[in-house]
Amino acid sequence: MSGVPRVPEQRRVGSSAEATEPAAALRFSVLGPVRAWLGEEQLPTGSPQQRALLAALLLREGRTATAAELIDALWGEEPPSQALAALRTYASRLRKVLDPGVLVSESGGYAVRGLAEGALDLAVAQELAAEAEKARGAGDLCHARKVLGRALALWDGEVLAGVPGPYAEAQRVRLEEWRLQLLESRLDMDLEQGCHAEAVSELTALTAEHPLRERLRELLMLALYRSGRQAEALAVYADTRRLLADELGVDPRPGLKELQQRILRADPGLAEPSAPVAEPAVVPVRPAQLPASVPDFTGRSAFVRELSEVLASASGTDGRVMAVSALAGIGGVGKTTLAVHVAHQARAAFPDGQLYVDLQGAGPRAAEPETVLGSFLRALGTPESAIPDSLEERSALYRSVLDGRRVLVLLDNAKDAAQVRPLLPGTEGCAALVTSRVRMVDLAGAHLVDLDVMSPDEALQLFTKIVGEERVASEREAALDVVAACGFLPLAIRIAASRLAARRTWTVSVLAAKLADERRRLDELQAGDLAVKATFELGYGALEPAQARAFRLLGLADGPDISLAAAAAVLDLPVEDTEDLLESLVDTSLLESAAPGRYRYHDLVRLYARACAERDEQPPSERDAALSRLLDFYLATAAGVYAIERPGDRLVDHLEATEYPGLSFADRHEAQDWLYAEAVSLLACVRQSTRPEFLRRAVDALWASVDLAESGSNSKAYEDVASVLRDAAKEAADPHAEARALIMVAYVHYYTGRFDIANQATEEAAALSAGNDPLTSCWASNTRGVIALFQNRYEDGEAHLTSAIESFRACQDRPGEASALCNLSRIHLATGRTGSAVSLAQEGTDMYDAMGHALKGANGRYALGLALTQSGRLSEATARLQEALAVFRDSRQRLWEGMSLFRLAEADLAGRRPAQAAASAEMALTVLRGIGGEWRRGNVLVVLGHALNGIGQAGRAQVCWRESLEIYEALGAAEAEAVRALLTPAAVA
Asked: What percentage of the chain reaches a pLDDT higher than 90?
């Protein structure tokens, strides 16, 4: 990005003494057609030669150009005989259009003066590029990319479009080169920030447009390599070398050769870069009453740095009265260990002493402030006889004694802010560190720190320090299992590691196996006088009855977190009362606020909460009632989302009844937001609802949330839950629930390309639902027809889909009928009946549109786009597929977004637009990463290979086809034969 281009004679606008007042509303563009605006009104800029004059003057930014220079710029070496007169005419016309005084005559030439800053798009681009370069130099890549994107967005097609003359042509070449340099810089930063997969599509299109530009090829190689596509990266080099030899008779530049060699040897230096983490600033410290710091203190560098900076501010010159930091966190999270460690480091800043007290706030008898003050005063040298009796007098004397001193006070294990306030110093130069299980939001002026569990790396380091490197190194995976079972809680890790260290005959795997049993885990986590359960018991015992009930019942839900509305269902309370209870539990650190309106437990705390529910919840049926209300809430709300997405769909009339209501939504976007935000928790609730009395509601909740399977982002979890419910229904001998669960199993296998398994599931569902569940029977036929299409069983598919259409009509399910019509269109298309295929897809799409089905209407347009492509109506096909793509993106349906991009690539290929096809196919691969199954990935790779071959990248095309062949052969897919033909030398030639 260095070398921002500037016209040689360029200087700052308005630097001349003759400059007029800025015309703030006047602005110009040259990074595209030459245009002028006055405010929002576009001004006429005249003939091409007149625009050429304006452009030549604008690009000098206020510097005078002589008549001879301008004539040469407009006409070159062969000007017309009346060139000077024509030049004056153009200048006169421009004066009439522009503000007075903007175009001035000077020394036989002309200049544009008095423009406001930012009036010329090129000047704005230069300033943005400079800002981006500065941000990049400072390490702020996010800002640099954003600013550079704004600069590139100023280009609007060809620079100086339609402007004649040699000067304009030279500037076009120069500014296009600069644009490419900026684009390369932005792409380079994309790769630095790990956006390699996303960059492949753009780089593929750019290398097709600029095949001889080696820097783009280099970036493409790196992006492909970092995306796990090493063979394609090497193929890019081979294609580049061949192209350069054929076109220019030269070899690739050394940098490109070196990159190829580094890729061949899998150089670790090519891995995705990571920003270095600054080491925490170490503050010299000296203790007084502080407890000893643990020798194996591990991690927490960010917190150490943050707290050290706050303590350092107490002895600064900013006039701060006192520094107070209050650490809050669950019991066992390491608050005291961290505070003592930081206090030791900070002792040099507090040469007059360090005070420490355990305030016993988590126990039944917290320390009295006046008792603590007496102890502090004595430690500070106050005679016993001089210590007053009352709390107020002791607190006042304490502050007086500290006046002029620099003392650090560590108040450990505080109960609340009321206990702490009398113990705080009140003078400049002093500081206090407070630890508590309660967030002290009411402690005025305090710097609040919420301490979370350790990172996995920190947890493993602590475990290793206690157990020993030798034992852990040989069983690293088992050690990771241990610290994960401990929930990365420092106390639990210390206990587990201490038990292992004391038992030389145990292996790490033995300990991991003991902790794998959740029912015994809390009992295993005790050593000597340390016990995780005892730590939690102190906090639980201090709760009010309503808080304790909420703590117990919320722990029953399996999800990683829970929303406020779902928690209200569990507790059977109004949302406002629920929020008050949950926030009070957050303040005690027994519950965490994951995000506004969402709450979660630490893993070990959840186990403890469930143990409390089994022990204390009376009557025991209340546990089942709480989970039943939660399932009702999810089923009712998911059904509402389904109804908004699919107006007129009869499924919502055939779901199990619920007693607890769900949420309602204003529009489909709000409904989608809820569904995807709740996806993991909803699926977890459904998964744990396998008992017979819950089973049918659980299956219906899964069906109502089928968008989660189609989206791709939750497909694997959805598949697992569907399989669990199918097995539970079979064991419970409930054919109704089993048939519906089988339909969901078929969906997820179909979406991932496992058609044999999907077909078997739909056959079983059809048999189980025949005669007792018409709606399930309809969808079984519809799905069997689609699967038959992909298995090339077209006659079977047509029979199933014709039956589905009749059944949906009998059930008066018009959305289902539209779906079957669109699917039948695909059968007609596959069997050469293109005209009827278009008609069927159009009929289904029209039905969706008439009912207001945005999402399913996109599925209709997808089918219609396929039929139109095959019928040769490519512009219509592209339009329908782009409409579908926009809806799928808006609805977060990643699977269908990727498939729409794939079909657009096919349409582009049919329309002989291989560069655009390659870009669409690359985007499809990126979107479909991890979803859609290998068969669909193989299909995209075949199309991408054709597109790459069409833009002269035959090496990459071969790599794509070879990879697709491996996929098809592994699946036993019929498409393998066609790909083998592509890989023959004759086909490539």
From this structure: 40
